[in-house]
From TrEMBL:
GO terms for molecular function: RNA binding. It comes from Lotharella globosa. This is Ribosomal RNA-processing protein 4. InterPro entries: Exosome_cplx_N_dom (IPR025721), Exosome_RNA_bind1/RRP40/RRP4 (IPR026699), KH_dom_type_1 (IPR004088), KH_dom_type_1_sf (IPR036612), NA-bd_OB-fold (IPR012340), S1_RRP4 (IPR048565). Residues 7-43 form the Exosome complex component N-terminal domain. It is found in: Nucleus.
Length: 202
């Protein structure tokens, strides 16, 4: 039974024996059948089918691209293409200069200096609650606010989970492939610096 294989509704995925039926599957006549069209995903013995139009389901360690929706009490609410808005706690962001300390009341009053409504950010899934809600963090220099680029949205099923979701292409473009189906494309930092230097010489 191959993982990530595309199946259509009613298609036989494989034998039922030795496997556990997950969502998007049906046991019939000793075989597992797909109840939706999508990609087969197998985790140990659990077999499920993720529909192409399904919303994003977070997993710890996922890289995501999100849009800030609200600045609340010591946290931000963000759209990450899931059934519920994600939450980014003030204690889970990278402070300027990389300072490691407890967040103060002054920090909470200055939250809009970090992110405001409408900002696009890259982040990592820190925790997935029992109700499916997602907690994020940006405690790394590779995460944070995204500027001067293009935002794209695709089906989360098209983004394969892998070790690296940050890519620098030879054509001078940097790409962030969010596990949640949100993609960020921008000119590479090296290219931007070269263009700025060229502009200064003119």
């Amino acid at each position: 039974m191959s993982d990530r294989r595309y199946v259509t509704t009613g298609e036989v995925i494989g034998p039922e024996s030795g496997f556990l039926r997950g969502h998007g599957t049906l046991a019939k006549d000793g075989k597992l059948q797909a109840t939706v069209s999508g990609f087969v995903q197998r985790v140990n013995k659990l077999v499920s089918v993720h529909a192409l139009n399904a919303r994003y389901t977070g997993e710890i360690g996922d890289v995501v691209v999100c849009r800030i929706l609200e600045v609340a009490d010591r946290r931000w609410k963000a759209d990450c293409n899931s059934r519920q808005n994600a939450s980014l706690q003030l204690s889970s962001v990278h402070l300027p200069g990389g300072v490691q300390r407890r967040r103060t009341q002054e920090d909470s009053l200055q939250m809009r200096q970090y992110f405001v409504e409408g900002d696009l950010i890259s982040a990592e899934v820190q925790k997935v609650q029992s109700d499916g809600s997602i907690a994020l963090h940006t405690r790394s220099l590779k995460y944070g606010k995204l500027n001067h680029g293009m935002f794209l949205s695709v089906s989360p099923s098209l983004i394969k989970r892998c070790k690296n979701h940050f890519h620098s292409l030879d054509c001078g473009v940097d790409v962030i492939l969010g596990n949640n189906g949100y993609v960020w494309i921008q000119a590479s930092q090296r290219k931007r610096m070269g263009e700025q230097a060229a502009g200064g010489e003119e």
